[in-house]
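pinging the channel bc i need a second pair of eyes. not urgent but kinda urgent?? the chain im working w is below, pasted from the shared doc
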Amino acid sequence: MALLKSYSCVKCGGVLNFDEGQEVFGCPFCGGEFAFTDFHRGDLIKQGKMALNRGNYLTAKDKYQAILRRNPRDFEALLGLILAECHLPSVGRVCRLEYLENARLKEAIQTTKNAKEALPEETEYFELLIRMFELADEYNRTRDDADEVTKAQNKHFRNMGYDIVTIEEKEKAFFDGYKTGLLYISLRILPIVALLLIAFGLAWVNLLIIAGIILLSIGLKQYYVISKKRAEKRLNREMAAQSFKDNSDIVKMKKIRDEYMNTYYKLKKIVPDPKAYEKPAPAVKNDAPEADPFIDIEKTVICNKCGGLLTLDKEKSLYECRSCGVAYGTSLFFGDPYEKIANALKDNDFAEADQRFSYMLMQDPHNFDALLGRVLLGGRWKKMGDIVLTEQAFTDVRMNNLKGRIADAVAHSTEEDRPFMENVSRLISLIFDYQKTSHAVDTFNEELEKISRLKKSGQNSKDVNDAHPENEPDYILWRREGLLRKTKIKTEFDELKDKILRENKELRSSGSEDKKWQY
């Protein structure tokens, strides 16, 4: 059973009774309505921290942004949003550089700069945090660059080592052959030559021949020795140069680490008091009429399940469908849906973005952006330009889902938007036709390949025993027709896509309320 709490109305002092799961609270005395975050800031902070610890950073961002919409100066929410953007489970993780190895540092730097602008009183704290993120980014880049260079150099050194081994192997192979040849000449040819030279009175030539053989052996041996020494000397020189560079990188990384830790120690000494910024700053009085601080949640919402009209319950915490009994929390319809969709797509969370579009259609079944958005998300496309022809076939489930979505988009579009949706429907149909035709062409190619292997083998080998040579002319004809159809589909697809992109640009420039999203 939910815990009941009691709060006082800030307008008249009346007691507000509400359930912890409520989103909006009404005062029975003055009729005032208050936002969820006015009383449940602590719960949102707690939920945000739990989401961070679980690694659900998108949910954590939603919680902290809900607080910041009411109080942009809330320090704890600002810090939580920074951690969510950085993908860190807690602020304690910034104590070591290793914890930031896979962090989204560029996003964290930008979010921290925004926080500094929102809360200038804590500029020093946020500047130190920015500097830590910058140092972590520099450290990661230096380490990655050093790792890449080291990998390349190690491969180069291995190749040079192989060169030295190759020289040794060539030397051994050459002298093995040289010794065999020399032995053959010494036993078979030199005795005959020596006798002939002695017979002709040229015995001294024998000494020259022997001296020549000895000098040749020494020269060849020195050639390989010098080649090996040169290769070893080059290897040692390059390894020494790499070692010097590695030492330079190590020194640089140590310097970055030292500065990072010094910055962290400074940061720990000036942590602001979150309680000082829990409440919004008092508004500056002027002559302009005071804005209504309460939320208007009286919206027309259509049930996403049965199409019935949803009604707001008396506690104004739920939209209920009297037809099928389904209920939705009013918080689902708060905030800017386009911002939530953009954040979801930034994290490639297609399911979250698709859900947001569905909520938009519950309020306006003819919303152009939501209808088109659900079609694109069904194909895993973020914008119209992402739609391309591909031979990789969609799964049956994905194809049927996409067909259903485009049919709904055409059926629920206004008369003005329907021609555009019909063109999109035709464009997606061309993708399905292209994939089907590509599959048929691949099948014919496989059959022709089997027949080709059968002809080469001259017999029914095991892997081509299902080939049908008698159908070869038909396969060739069908493949040609398939290739021609693919070309025709591609031409029509490119022309239709260009037309849709032009029309989409014109629709976006019309300034219509349901055509804000930049597809």
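so The radius of gyration is 39 Å. and Confidence is low (pLDDT under 50) at residues 1-5, 17-22, 284-298. — does that match what u expected or am i reading it wrong
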